[in-house]
């Protein structure tokens, strides 16, 4: 699949004509301690039944957290087993080795790389370092909320910018939203929970211009699922000296979500501004670092995951086509689609859980949307059977 937006697909999906996910008024989180926090227009349901319990014993298809079902790879498992006996020591030396490998792969110096126990840790640390004195953050809405939520929790104001009609970041509008108080722009590309991408050339030119005024955080958690990650990544801007922070994770294509390893790449000055406040390698587990090293050395596994992910996604999309559901074309390991108008989304989600299938539910414009992560082919078939049953 081409990773540039295929307009024919959009039109085929019918979602542009229908206005897609048009905008709902911003709402506050009912359960938030901070009543000032702004809620995304994609309101994530508070789930009051066991579907959110990932470890529910009856879960037959766990498709709610964009995990990769295929790993960890045999190489990672072996490296972790071998590393257990080093568990009495801090893993600084191994972290240094991993940083060196990442620096070489990304074409930057080791001072440009910071590791964390998952990229969430680095999203949060970046938010703390940028917003400890307040300010505002500009991002798309809907988008991944982790960094934005932490920013708001430490006192930032969120300036959400709606996606374009084809679900890309509205870069001109985001640039316009920047003001003298803006401390960071967050871009998630490909974007969770939508699965869409923003054109790489447009994003590069936006980053080059706007990062002169304010740092730009580009979250590339799903980059490796693209056909051409190298042309879509913003990492090259770092070695050119632009104030861009690129985040990656071992949770997705490497299938190591529970092992907790991620990294950011940024200019040495930007990395230092974060590590002056919080420590990088101290939160890391030596077994996971060794696992990440092994995973970087075994490219074949990731290549295979990508192929399997595409096959599961194509299968799901064909099934949805047959059933008459319009989905947003996805460039990731998840697909989001609206349920039929009169569906009671909560009842749907509960019924699916009772079939042992976990998905993530969103509400856009008071309509229930279902985000399905790619599992094994068997899990996708379980999902499809359960979906047919509960929507019959
Ligand atoms: C866009 C995005 N960024 C970051 C993360 C966090 O990943 P992790 O903390 O496992 O690296 C996720 C998790 O789903 C995500 O979707």
Supply the number of helical segments. 14
Under CATH, the topology of the largest domain is which?
Aspartate Aminotransferase, domain 2
CATH class of the largest domain: Alpha Beta
Number of strands: 13
CATH architecture of the largest domain: 3-Layer(aba) Sandwich
Which structural category fits the helices and strands?
alpha/beta
Bound molecules: pyridoxal-5'-phosphate
Give helix % range. Answer: 25-40%
Strand content: 15-25%
**Sheet with the most strands?**
7 strands, mixed
N-to-C SSE string, H for helix and E for strand: HEEHHEHEHEHEHEHHEEHHHEHEEEH
Strand numbers in spatial order across the main sheet: 3-9-8-7-6-4-5
Note poorly predicted spans: 1-34
Report the radius of gyration as a whole number of Å: 20 Å
End-to-end Cα distance: 32 Å
- Average pLDDT for all residues: 88
Any idea what the CATH superfamily of the largest domain is called? Answer: Type I PLP-dependent aspartate aminotransferase-like (Major domain)
Count up the domains: 2
